[in-house]
Amino acid sequence: MLRGKTLIELATEIERQSASKSDLLAQSDALSVVAPCVNGPMLHVGADRSYGINEVAHGQLATYTGIPKAYYDTLRTSAPTLYEENVNHWLKKHTGERRMVRTLDGNVRALLSPGYRSLDNADLLEAVLPAAHEAGLQILSSNVTDTRMYLQMTTSRLRGEVKVGDEVQAGLVISNSEVGAGALNVEWLIYRLVCLNGMIVGKALRKNHIGRRVTGLEDEVQAYYADSTRRLDDAAFFSKVRDTVRHMLTPEGFEAKLAELRGSTERKIEGDPVVAVEKFQRRLGLTDGERGGLLTHLIEGGDLSAWGVANAVTALAHDAESYDRSVELERAGSTVIDLPRSEWKTLAQAA
To answer: Can you give the pTM of this predicted structure?
Structure first.
């Protein structure tokens, strides 16, 4: 688990972003890219607005225009004039359609459907933090990246041993994307005290960013504001989030999670651990560097059970290349725990 930002730093950054960001609704006809530019391509939105384009938005623009991402990236870095011609040609094929253009700090951070429901980070924090305090949760780690905001929290009120001397605490992970990179999620967290690893072990609440398509676009480009109905819908949903945070962590639920984890200690790697690690690499989508780290953590931990493999995976999160990747590795540990017995046997009995 990477430490990320303190809660004060996170709240300060979310407040700063709230003041800087804006949303526009635009006819596809009003969108065009301009390249070459000193700092990379610019997206023109109408006649008088120009923005840089971040990596998330580049991926969405490639998808929208139907240009394979690898070719799109080659064009924008090596052939900017050809890039401009290609993107603008395919944008024109979407005449009559509309896009929501989300901007931050003078850059396009997302290019989305007009039916995208924002569920903004500032509203989520306002809903969650008082409920988390009431539930006795303490912030372990938090961050906001180009794709998601994260809150990882735990409580000492629910604590137990997976095996003798191996104690864990219950917690929650709340994550949200303002740029179309996934749903708003509230998930279980198991926090291992002996090594301070976090493992995300299942969802309690998930909300996709899908809403009513916005109607009544009178101009080529106009600022987007939430109507009263959407604001009421969002308020009702965030009330549900508060209730989930208050009531999700029950002794009964925690005991059920502990039972699953205790069962994982009985499944062992019975073949060559090096070969098994190679198979886990492919199954979990690990890089070659992460595979080496997995083998090292597995050997150092001295536990060749599914529980040991899962903890070796989550240990990788401490040295992940990014906060997003760190959280992915915390989820990957749970994937090991949840493997069907037949699949575990295939992976763990490698010759």
So the answer is: 0.90
